Amino acid sequence: MDNPCEYCNSKCCKYYTVALTREDILRVLKIKKGFEWIQVIEANGIETQFSHGFFIFDQGKMKECFLALNRKRSEKCIFLENNKCSIYEYRPMACRLYPFELGVKGVEYKKKHRCPIGWNIDDIKKDFLENNEIAKKEIEEHEKKVREWNSKINEKKTIKEFIEFLIEE
Ligand code: SF4
Ligand code: SF4
């Protein structure tokens, strides 16, 4: 079956902030050096399924933040090139699961989504369920590390130190 994403010019990659877990970062680091592709976003009450908020001090004030894929000035995901994902095999879990979620009746479209394609749920169900299980474990691992960091936070810690702590074995 053709991949419907080929026909929609990757609309989702142009609109959403993609929150990152520890495992998402480790996957992308297999093919990208440095951390420039990561941005830090102040949580300000935003809750994401994929990135538990970590604490950091900024000019003496403690803030809750999460990590996300950086975006180009045009607001597209930094990895979107010619309307295609340039890191497809290594893309974050949030990208793999979009535009579906596990509802009470099984796999269904997210309540609010911008995907213009009418997917056949039976075609994606198996992959979605497998990825959803992996995502749950990765989110748990991520949250464990973030809780450990938050319990030891002090004013001297930097964002770079947080990312290094997050990805260390
Ligand atoms: S998931 Fe939907 S919006 Fe995103 S690239 Fe595929 S078809 Fe387009
Ligand atoms: S990582 Fe790939 S799939 Fe995910 S938003 Fe960026 S371009 Fe799209």
List the helices and strands and how they pair.
Layout: H1 12-15, H2 22-29, E1 38-42, E2 54-58, E3 61-69, E4 80-81, E5 84-85, H3 93-97, E6 100-103, E7 106-109, H4 121-151, H5 159-167
Antiparallel strand pairs: 1-3, 2-3, 4-5, 6-7
The protein binds iron/sulfur cluster (SF4) (2 copies).
How would you explain this protein's 3D organization?
This protein is of the alpha+beta class and 169 residues long. The protein has one domain (7-167). 34% of the residues lie in helices and 18% in strands. It has five helices and seven strands, in the order ααβββββαββαα. The protein has helices at residues 12-15, 22-29, 93-97, 121-151, 159-167, and strands spanning 38-42, 54-58, 61-69, 80-81, 84-85, 100-103, 106-109. The strands form three sheets. A three-stranded antiparallel sheet has the order 1-3-2. A two-stranded antiparallel sheet has the order 4-5. A hairpin with a 2-residue loop joins strand 6 and strand 7. The radius of gyration is 17 Å and the shape is globular. The mean pLDDT is 92. The structure holds iron/sulfur cluster (2 copies). One iron/sulfur cluster (SF4) is lined by residues 10, 13, 18, 69, 77, 79-80, 85, 87, 91-92, 95.
